[in-house]
Each structure stands twice: as C-alpha cells, then as structure tokens.
Specification:
This protein has helices spanning about 15-25, 35-45, 60-75, 100-105, 120-130, 140-160, 175-189, and strands at about 5-10, 30-35, 80-85, 90, 95, 110-115, 165-170. By secondary structure, the protein is of the alpha/beta class. It has one domain (about 5-185): 3-Layer(aba) Sandwich (Rossmann fold). The strands form 2 sheets. The protein has a 5-stranded parallel beta sheet with strand order 2-3-1-6-7, sandwiched between helices. A two-stranded antiparallel sheet has the order 4-5. Strand 4 and strand 5 form a beta hairpin. The longest helix is centred in the last third of the chain and has 22 residues, at about 140-160.
C-alpha cells in the first residue's frame, strides 16, 4: 500500500495529534511535517532562526522553501506517508496558499484530510500553547479561516483528483477523528 496522505488544518486544530494517533496504529507509516522541512532549509540558508519567523519572509522565499520541501517529501518511499501541513499561511501580504499548484502537484497526494474543531476550542488551544508565537486572533477570525480551509481543500482535491475527508477533532475526541482517517485508509488499501 503506497499512500501519501496530506493532513491539513488551521493552527491549533490538533491535526498533528490526530495524524500521530493514526500513524501509531499503522505499519510502515511515516509522518513528515512540511513546515519542519521548510524550516530546516531556511536555517541552512540562514534566512531564519526560529520557525515562526518564516511567516515574515517575503513570499518568493517562502515559495522556494515550499518547492524544496515538496521535492524532498515526494522522494520518500514509505508505504504510507502522512504530510502534516497547512492549506494557507497568514503572511504580511495576506493569505498565501500552503499548497499552491506546483507544490500539491509535486506531493502527489492520494488522500486529503482536513482536521476541524470549533473556533472557541482552537482559540483556547492556541492560548495555552506556549511553544509557539501565534498571531492574536478572535474566534470570528478563526471561523473565517475554517471556511477558507474548506475552500482551499476543495481546490486541492480538484487539482489532484485526491478524495478529501473532513474530520472533527473536538476536545477529547482525537481518537474518534483518528479512527475516521484510519477507516478511510483501510478502504483505500
């Protein structure tokens, strides 16, 4: 079974938690965080010192980092590769696609998964995460981002032909969200 599953969601939705639970239940599955691959390249180029600085880079530099990351991830040979990433990034120039055409095409996803949660829950998760320097947003901003995420996911699915799955990661329900993703993958096998 060779699957490349792109798992997306806005920051604080719990996508990493969900994908780690799915991966732990599978044999021959790898998890790669797209932003980490980008960050490693940005550090190598001496463009940033911490991951949250990447959002402030000019879009052209971010595009370069995306292309490098997509090429590295596309070469992975594991049976199932989970790619943890974002559909868009809030930059100084506006919302910028995390999976523009050349990137989503290079990744060649077999499946797309959007992890969602209520805006108030996401806001609480962000506020309690001291490991990141997140933009201060209101619940209404997050509701707009959730709607935008669905739109970006639809476009990615259309461009790649990969089916898309929406899963809810409400508080205390990560196991259920992971089970929904695992169920989809069992059907694909």
């Amino acid at each position: 079974m060779r699957l490349r599953v792109v798992v997306v969601g806005i920051p604080g939705v719990g996508k990493t938690t969900v994908v780690e639970k799915v991966r732990a239940s599978m044999k021959k599955a790898a998890l790669v965080t797209f932003g980490t691959v980008m960050f490693e390249e940005a550090v190598r180029l001496k463009w940033v010192k911490d991951r949250d600085q990447m959002r402030a880079l000019p879009v052209e530099r971010q595009r370069k980092l995306q292309r490098v990351a997509a090429a590295k991830i596309a070469r992975m040979k594991d049976g199932v590769v989970f790619v943890d990433t974002h559909l868009f990034i809030r930059t100084q120039e506006g919302f910028w696609p995390g999976l523009p055409f050349e990137v989503v095409r290079a990744l060649k996803p077999t499946h797309l998964v959007l992890v969602e949660a209520a805006a108030e829950e996401i806001l609480q998760r962000r506020e309690s995460d001291s490991t990141r320097k997140r933009d201060a947003l209101r619940a209404s901003d997050l509701e707009s981002e959730l709607a935008l995420a669905r739109a970006f996911l639809s476009v990615s699915s259309t461009l790649t032909g990969a089916p898309m799955l929406l899963v809810n990661n409400s508080k205390g329900k990560a196991d259920e969200a992971a089970a929904a993703v695992a169920g989809m993958l069992r059907k694909a096998a």
